[in-house]
Amino acid sequence: MTKAFGTFLTAVLLLFVLPPQAQAQEPYPLFAYYYIWYEKSSWNRAKSDHPVLGDYSSDDSRIMREHITKAKNAGITGFIVSWKSTPALDRRLETLANIARAEDFRLAIIYEGLDFYRNPLPLEKVAADLKLFRTRHGTDPAFTLFGKPLVIWSGSWKFSAEQIAQAAQPVRDKVLVLGSEKSAEDYERIAKAVDGNAYYWSSLDPQRDPKAADKLAAMSAAVHRHNGLWIAPFTPGFDSRLLGGERVVQRNDGATLRRLYDVALSSSPDALGLISWNEFSENSHVEPSVNHGDRYLTVLRELRSSAVPDLGPLAEDSSAAGTSGHDGMLVLGISAGALLALAVFLLVRKSTRVAVVGLAGVVTASCMAGTLASDSAGGQDTQERQQNVQQTLYHLGNKPVRSPDAVTIAAAGDIACPPDADGLSKEEREQPRPCREHVTADLVASLAPDAVLALGDLQYPNGSLERFRNGYDHTWGRFKDITYPVPGNHEYGTSGAKGYFDYFGAAAGDRDAGYYSYELGEWHVVALNSECERIGGCGGGSPQEIWLRADLAAHPATCTLAYLHRPRFSSGTHGSNSDYDAFWRALYDAGVDVVLTGHDHDYERFAPLSPGGSVDERGVRQFVVGTGGDSNYRIRTPAANGSESRIQGVYGVLSMTLRPDGYDWRFVAEPGAQAADSGSGRCSAR
Question: Where do transmembrane segments lie in this chain (predicted)?
Answer without folding.
Answer: 328-347, 354-373
